[in-house]
Amino acid sequence: ANLYVPDGITTPRGAVLFASGHHPQAKHAEEYQIVCRYLAKAGLVVLAQDPIGQGERFSYYEKSLKGTTINCCCPEHDHAGSQCSALGDSLCRYFVHDIMRGVDYLCTRPEVDPKRIGITGNSGGGTQTCLMMMCDPRIAAAAPGTFVMNRQSYMYVGGAQDAEQIWRGMTALGWDHEDILLAMCPKPVRVLAVTYDFFPIEGTRRTVQRCKRFWKMLGQPGKVDLVEDVSTHCYTRNLARAAAEFFSQHLLGKKVTPRDEDIQPIEPSQLWCTQSGQVRGELPGARFVYEENLDRLTLLTKQRKQLSQKKKNDWLREKIFAGRKKCDLNLRVYYTPRINNLAIQAGLWFSQEDICNYGVMFRDFRQSESKTPVTLAVWNNGTQAAADHAPWIRKTCQAGRAVLVLDVSGMGCLEPSILNGPSAREFYGALHKLNDDLFWLDDSLAAMRVYDVLRAVELIEQWPGLDSSDLRFYTHGTAGMYVRLAALLDNRIKKIESVEGWKNYSDWVKTRYYDSTDIRSLIIPGLLKYFD
Question: Going by C-beta distance under 8 Å and a sequence separation of 6 or more, which residues neighbour residue 88?
Fold first, then answer.
């Protein structure tokens, strides 16, 4: 962290903790220095603190490479945060802890009055500001920047968010961004926003407007407001000036407007707290989220040994079935031309209300008129990858079995369209975004897909020409996890052949560098608290 102390301080005064929202390189280094200098020029003590994965705290910095192996900021947060989710944690627990320790430090400074501490930041720094507004009563005033909106507006715009910004189950509890502001009422709050943000400005305006009446009811109508600037996503000079005026008025007792010409940044390396610019490059014993997760995994492994199998399965059943609206499968079967010796049918059915699943059935043409035992095939990318598994399909059909290749929710032909730039399975793509929305509802895409597998078992009894008495599964790749979890809940799933799948979740959590492609689709949050 960097501490900015105005000259000539003789008595304790107000202070502002500035929570960085990006790594301090290029324009962001200058942008955030400018904010801190506006605040300091207004007479405030300022502590500018690096969060996890930013500034001098790159978690995946390797000294031998003199660089990072996982990109800092958003990709790093997601890489470590996904492993947190399997443990039942959120990455934001570490952000909250760190920023609270920043307040602890400010309280030790002779220049600071502990009763007059404010907080601000934008983007990820706005997230940290909002977390502290809800979690730490020591905050006397707050100016969250470019983050406050509402959940509905953000669901519609199609964007994903960083792991620390996904607060599992909160939407299911009825929580929204109004609750962030109301946690501070009637303390002073100034929401900072830009008109061209990917955090929708209409959501910001609605949330602030809805909350104003609560300050009015408590006799403090002027202590909550919204300041906007015409810009894209950043902490602009205009917003920095507005923050300096806000905090000086409420923490120093007088409004101060610093002169723009007095605010100039300095070369970023002069602000380094380490010689190399990275803690991990200089302190061999420094711990990051990865090391914390290893300790959490050890603890949970010991604790779950005390749980009965019934308690474990009851938890899983709750996660798989909660909120699902079971409906008639309403199977539609479509016949397609025979390809060589294989008779092919396509099928569409409803896994739950308004949610369709899809599959393609392969049978040796000599078996197409008789009751045939079936093997359900579940692999990554479903029917879109059937050609990659053609030799196995032919071999199985020649042995007298039918093969049903499943497309569970969001897979194969059911993969969602591009919503926001990246392809569906990429970082921040549609599946990432939609799975985050499910996390907010205390659900997950993995739980949906396990449910889809269970409904597919029921489907076999309705598909014409199939014998459900000898049901088998064949899985390939990470998607096999959905079948293995379903087998814990349905004793009709007795025979599973798994090829190149995951061994377990614990090994993944122990893996510092892993393939993060579409990783969120495999996580049921908290699973490792109950079993592996």
Answer: 300, 525, 526, 527, 528, 529
